[in-house]
Specification:
Elements lengths: L4 H16 L8 H26 L9 H18 L11 H16 L3 H10 L24 H6 L7 E6 L2 E6 L4 E6 L4
Antiparallel strand pairs: 1-2, 2-3
Helix pairs in contact: 2-3, 4-5
Length: 186
Amino acid sequence: MKLSRCAVALMLSCAVATIAGGQTPAVNPDGKVLQDFTTRVKAYVDLQRKLERESPPPKSTKDPAQIKGAQDALAARIRQARATARQGDIFTPEITAHFRKLLHPEAKGPDARETKSMVRDEAPAAVTLKVNAAYPENQPLPTVPPNLLAALPRLPESLEFRFVNNDLILRDVHANLIVDYIPKAI
C-alpha cells in the first residue's frame, strides 16, 4: 500500500501529538543498554581511527620489531588521549549487569562445564587487568568459546572480547590494549 506524503505527515503528527500528550513510547531497557554500549564502543573506535590517521603510515614490512613499534606508538597515543580512562567507562554497571545476564545461560546451562573448561584451558597464568595496559605478549591470548561469543554483541573488527579466567576483557587489536573489563563475568 502506497501512502501519500500527506498521509505520512498526518501519521507522524499524530505520533508526535501522542508523545507530546504525555504518553511516552515504550523503550526496551535491554535495547537501551545495548545502544549505550554501542555508542561507547563507537566513540572508542572513532578515537582509535583518528589517532591511526594522524600517525605516519607504517611501512609495508614483515619485520616484527617494526610492526611492534607501530603498535606501541599507537598504544601510547591512545593512552595519552584516554589518560583518565577507568574500568567501567565502557562496561558501565548497567552494561556489566546486562552482559552477565547474557552470559549466564552459557555459564550455568547444560554446556556450562564444557564452556568453563574451554575458558580455563586457555587461561593465561597471570594477567593483571588494568585499563590502558598492554595485554602481555608472553601470555596466551585465549579464544572465546563460540557459545559465549554468540551471546555477546558484535564488535568492530579492531576490538575483540577475550576471557582472562572468569573476567571478560575488551581488547584493542591494533594497539594490544585492554580497553575495559568485567570482573567475574562468568
